[in-house]
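Researcher: Quick test of sequence recovery. Tokens follow.
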């Protein structure tokens, strides 16, 4: 019965908004986590129908003497009684209480099916956002451990054919934008695939691969890169692969539990050049000599997650759609996101910064980028957006021009639209430092010239003024 108590406790925590489904489940002990997760997810799928069944049967009212029998515990028990293989627990007062109402519970379930016109139990389930069904299964080949060509041959030997991935559950294709990304049928499962369990392939949405690809860190022995918010480690492992496991990759994660997840992920993926650090990136001293040679920084800070359509949280009841409440939340997130970008710009040697969110809201995307470009940090260090030619130029959906200062800036940005681009909603911007050095060179030349060829005072003042404006 402890198993059911644990599942009910998860539902209690979700009801009190203590985290997302994924985060709450991740906090459970690894032993038995998979079994508990399966029951919680399946119960949530049928929660509306099961709650109606329980209320109609009056089981909680008639069994009120059993103090520990609350709604969530009843939900998981009734789920297994009606929709699975029965209650998997020894006899006891709680199990007997449920079984006393078995006949009534089953008749109420049948009544609901008739009422809703459902021909099977499956038709009572909440299967979430229909756009998720149009997103294929993306599998990134971890080139730290093998090549994409080797991966393709491996799956071909397992009976998969290179063709339209939606044509069959044994079909797959190579992505046209991300070289090491393979595309499979949406229903294709990999959790028991030896390549997944050993870290040779990583399940990662296509849009989530864009930030590291656009950042394009150098694959050299002296390259130094930062992933500022690294857990669970998908983007970190992608950076490591693009760096050919060379140089140094600092991966920051402030939460201790997520830090442990990050370390496990990097170890499984064979990311030997990565060092996980249990520290908040915003507390890192940008002038610390340890990070003095950092040239590339990836920023994927907390966001609203409004672009995610295949996440488990569609199973939770919708939160209050209060416009003012949403606006306040987005503004707080945007303030934090801007703070992250401005902090990254303070690292003395940084040349490129990739900023990404899984949000569809301009306030977290274009508007944050525009404020970052106007910031003192960007002006002082000479940061601009990379041109479209350096930011996945073949990708069709770009930034919103109405939220940027000019069309070129909007073209530099990348957007993904859920339901239209076969990905989750996503946004990517990449800042690059464009240092102007000709003023320094001119000044040095002036110093070397004879006095009779020196510029007059007006010219010197003009140069100093231009130099101040540029720096």
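Model:
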């Amino acid at each position: 019965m402890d198993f059911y108590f644990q599942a009910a406790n998860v539902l209690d925590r979700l009801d009190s908004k203590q985290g997302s489904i994924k985060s709450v489940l991740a906090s459970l002990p690894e032993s038995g986590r998979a079994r508990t997760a399966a029951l919680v997810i399946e119960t949530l799928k049928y929660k509306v129908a099961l709650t109606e069944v329980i209320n109609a049967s009056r089981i909680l009212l008639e069994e009120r003497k059993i103090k520990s029998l609350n709604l969530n515990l009843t939900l998981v028990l009734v789920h297994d009684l009606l929709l699975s293989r029965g209650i998997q627990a020894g006899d006891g007062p709680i199990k007997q209480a449920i079984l006393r109402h078995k006949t009534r519970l089953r008749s109420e379930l049948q009544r609901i099916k008739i009422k809703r016109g459902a021909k099977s139990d499956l038709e009572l389930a909440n299967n979430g956002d229909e756009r998720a069904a149009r997103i294929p299964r993306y599998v990134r080949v971890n080139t730290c451990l093998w090549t994409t060509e080797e991966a393709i041959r491996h799956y071909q030997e397992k009976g998969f054919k290179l063709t339209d991935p939606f044509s069959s559950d044994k079909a797959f294709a190579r992505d046209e934008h991300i070289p090491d990304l393979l595309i499979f049928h949406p229903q294709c499962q990999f959790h028991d695939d030896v390549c997944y369990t050993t870290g040779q392939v990583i399940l990662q949405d296509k849009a989530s691969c864009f930030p590291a690809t656009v950042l394009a860190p150098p694959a050299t022995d002296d390259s130094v890169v930062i992933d500022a918010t690294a857990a669970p480690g998908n983007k970190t492992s992608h950076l490591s692969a693009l760096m050919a496991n060379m140089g140094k990759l600092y991966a920051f994660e402030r939460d201790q539990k997520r830090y442990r997840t990050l370390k496990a992920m990097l170890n499984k993926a064979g990311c030997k050049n990565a060092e996980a650090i249990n520290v908040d990136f915003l507390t890192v001293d940008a002038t610390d000599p340890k990070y003095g040679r950092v040239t590339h920084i990836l920023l994927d800070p907390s966001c609203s997650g409004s672009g995610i359509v295949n996440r488990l949280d569609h199973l939770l009841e919708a939160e209050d759609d209060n416009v003012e409440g949403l606006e306040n939340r987005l503004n707080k997130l945007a303030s934090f996101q801007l703070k992250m970008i401005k902090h990254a710009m303070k690292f003395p040697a940084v040349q490129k910064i990739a900023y990404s969110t899984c949000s569809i809201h301009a306030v977290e995307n274009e508007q944050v980028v525009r404020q970052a470009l106007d910031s003192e940090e960007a002006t002082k260090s000479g940061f601009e957006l990379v041109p479209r030619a350096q930011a996945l130029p073949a990708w069709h959906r770009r930034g919103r021009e109405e939220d940027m200062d000019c069309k070129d800036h909007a073209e530099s940005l990348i957007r993904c639209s859920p339901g239209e681009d076969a990905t989750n909603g996503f946004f990517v911007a990449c800042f690059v430092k464009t240092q102007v050095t000709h003023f320094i060179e001119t000044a040095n030349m002036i110093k070397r010239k004879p006095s009779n060829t020196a510029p007059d005072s007006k010219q010197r003042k003009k140069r100093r003024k231009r130099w101040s404006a540029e720096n």
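The longest helix spans residues 323-344.
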